[in-house]
Design a protein that fits this description.
Strand content: 15-25%
Enzyme class: transferase
GO molecular function, one term: flavin prenyltransferase activity
CATH architecture: 3-Layer(aba) Sandwich
Distance between the termini: 39 Å
Oligomer: single chain
Largest sheet: 6 strands, parallel
Number of strands: 6
Helix content: 40-55%
Order of helices and strands: EHEHHEEHHEHEH
Protein name: Flavin prenyltransferase UbiX
CATH superfamily: Flavin prenyltransferase-like
CATH topology: Rossmann fold
CATH class: Alpha Beta
Structural class: alpha/beta
Radius of gyration: 16 Å
Shape: globular
Number of domains: 1
Number of helices: 7
Strand order of the largest sheet: 3-2-1-4-5-6
Keywords: Flavoprotein, FMN, Prenyltransferase, Transferase
Catalytic activity: dimethylallyl phosphate + FMNH2 = prenylated FMNH2 + phosphate
């Protein structure tokens, strides 16, 4: 009897505010025994420092230490590594989530630009017909932002803006972060217990 193929998910973290969303997403996927292929933009690393206090000198060493206690497997891919496995459609993954997603990255994906590994991996999801979820974090939104979101939505990309909900009685920022990560996982039919559902 052969072992089932490991579940692979690509996660992108950009320089939009809300780095904690991406961190929690990676933690949750790893806890569910996914193999996570992580790409962080240059601005994303800066937001790690500004919002979370992560002063990182060795990025791979930091990530290995941060996520070492989870049963899944983490593979970090530098954003300039355009020859990484996830840049090819022949490498099988369940999908890709960019959380949070900056408007610059969203625009690049909408226009088909793939000049770094994150946007190339997103382009692969589109051309291979695999799930792609973007979590834009910006306000207010102007017409170009909205037009790019509409264009991607019409292509089947799931747009899940970083909008918190309050019907489940959140008691902390951690609860609000868990809610949004849970909504992203819901969109991919991934079971979780990150928030109390309506009616429960």
């Amino acid at each position: 009897m052969t072992n089932p193929r490991p579940k692979h998910m690509v996660v992108g973290i950009t320089g939009a505010s809300g780095a904690i969303y991406g961190i929690r997403l990676v933690e949750t996927l790893l806890s569910l025994e996914y193999t996570v292929h992580l790409v962080v933009s240059h601005a994303g690393w800066r937001v790690f420092k500004e919002e979370l206090g992560y002063g990182v000198s060795d990025r791979e060493e930091f990530l290995n230490a941060k996520f070492k206690d989870y049963p899944g497997s983490l593979h970090y891919h530098p954003i300039a590594d355009i020859g990484a496995s996830i840049a090819s459609g022949s490498f099988r993954v369940e999908g890709m989530i960019i959380m949070p997603c900056s408007m610059g990255t969203l625009s690049a994906v909408a226009s088909g630009a793939s000049d770094n590994l994150m946007t190339r991996a997103a382009d692969v999801m589109l051309k291979e017909g695999r799930p792609l979820v973007l979590v834009p974090r910006e306000t207010p939104l102007h017409a170009i932002h909205l037009e790019n979101m509409l264009k991607l939505s019409r292509l089947g990309v799931r747009m899940i803006p970083a909008m918190p909900a309050f019907y489940f009685g959140p008691q902390s920022i951690d609860d609000l972060v868990g809610f949004l990560v849970g909504k992203v996982l819901d969109s991919l039919n991934i079971e979780h217990t990150l928030f109390r559902r309506w009616g429960e």
